[in-house]
Amino acid sequence: MYYRSLSVTFVFLLFQMPNILIVEDHPVVVEGLQKLLCDKGITANCLVANTVKDCLLTLNVITPDLILLDYNLPDGNGLDLCKTILNMKPFMKILAISSYKEQSLVMQMMENGAMGYVLKNASEGEIIEAVTVVLSGKKYLCEETQNILNKKNSNHSILTRRELEVLKFISDGFTNPEIADKLFISPLTVDSHRKNLIVKLDAKNTASLIKIAFQNKYL
Amino acid sequence: MMPETLVKMGLKGALSDFCDNMNASNSMTVRFQFVGQFERLEQKFEIGIYRIIQELVNNAVKHSQADKLIVQMVQEPHRLCLIVEDNGKGFDVSAIGQGKGIGLNSVKSRIETLNGRIDISSEFGKGSEFIIEFILL
Question: How many independent structural domains does chain B possess?
């Protein structure tokens, strides 16, 4: 009787434990992650997919609670896969685990819908924390990734010295050739600046460019 | 040697990382700004442009004595424009192609092979500006 209730509890626990799918092609890394997650009692069910194809096939059958996603896969990359997964299952919790430290990659991964990003050189504690936090539905970035992202200087459009000069002349009603003459640059270059300004200030045409420039006090 | 970000992320990500690294490793402030609609381009083209910008930024670091440099990438569905602008000492543009400045000559010919257009303007004491434009088909 005692044993029976124990095993019932055990089975019950198994059901309670989150299903985690590890998408990673390096067997030793998979092994390590599996061991870490089981030892710390996070999960008893680690599913593994070694390729993009594998991962998608697995997802057709089951819906794990969390996906640990590597960037480099033999038949694709984690960035695109992240998007594909979220198209299939919009509420999937994805934690990217990668050795890439490039800012653009981390940002793109988060933009593509990952809920967390951990570097492979993170400590055991950090990886466990990341898994727990993302499982609870919150976002998580490991310390090093946070530092990488914090380095990003604010990136709102600024106009360069030359662009401001061109803008000023446009607002004064000069034509491209006239502005080119004044600034000793080619008329084609003036036109490049004009087109860039229109894109930068999100204007429709030169007339609205001037209006927006005034509103934003560039003029 | 090709940076991994270029293959993975295309020009926007690769140039952004390149500028970040230049910014961190030099006394010059290097900024990158992207405006418009980002789309991947043919790989040969991406590599070519990346190399050109690398060359221009390295030139500026070596020779311009500027403290600020900005690299801009403006992408529209049919147009790509890159601007490298510094506030350095400037140089004599007419001297390009007269034996000196082999770097700029190679930049020019590389842009021509990619069917682009470059325009260089520079003013002594104020800075230099390189505008590169491509029509995308």
Answer: 1
Q: Residue A204 is part of which domain span?
A: 161-215
| Listed range (A12-21, A62-71, A138-147, A194-203) with the worst mean pLDDT | A12-21
Quickly tell me which residue has 């089975």 as its tokens: A11
Which among A102, A153, A185 is the nearest to B31, CB-wise?
A: A153
Q: Least CB-CB distance to A160: which of B76, B85, B123?
A: B85
Distance CA B65, CA B56 (A): 14
Tell me how far apart the alpha carbons of residues A78 and A76 are, in angstroms, rounded to a whole number: 7
From residue A94, how far is each of A64, A113, A135, A137 by CA, in Å? 10, 8, 9, 10
d(CA A111, CA B57): 29
Domain that holds residue B69: 4-135
Q: Cβ–Cβ of A192/B9 closer than 8 Å?
A: no
CB contact under 8 A, B70 and A189: no
> B90: closest CA among A184, A59, A148, A114?
A184
Measured between beta carbons, which residues in chain A are less than 8 angstroms from residue B14?
104
Measured in angstroms, the CA of A90 and the nearest CA of chain B are apart by: 23
* ipTM tops the 0.90 cut: no
For residue range A150-159, list pLDDT tens digits in order. 765 444 567 8
Q: Please count the structural domains in chain A.
A: 2
Record the pTM: 0.65
Helices (H), A137-183: 143-150, 161-171, 176-183
Which chain A residues are Cβ-neighbours of B5 within 8 angstroms? 102, 104-105
Residue the block writes with tokens 């682009």: B116
Q: Nearest CA of chain B to the CA of A196: how many Å?
A: 6
Compare all CA atoms of chain B with the CA of A201 and give the residue at the minimum distance.
B35
CATH of the domain at A177: 1.10.10.10
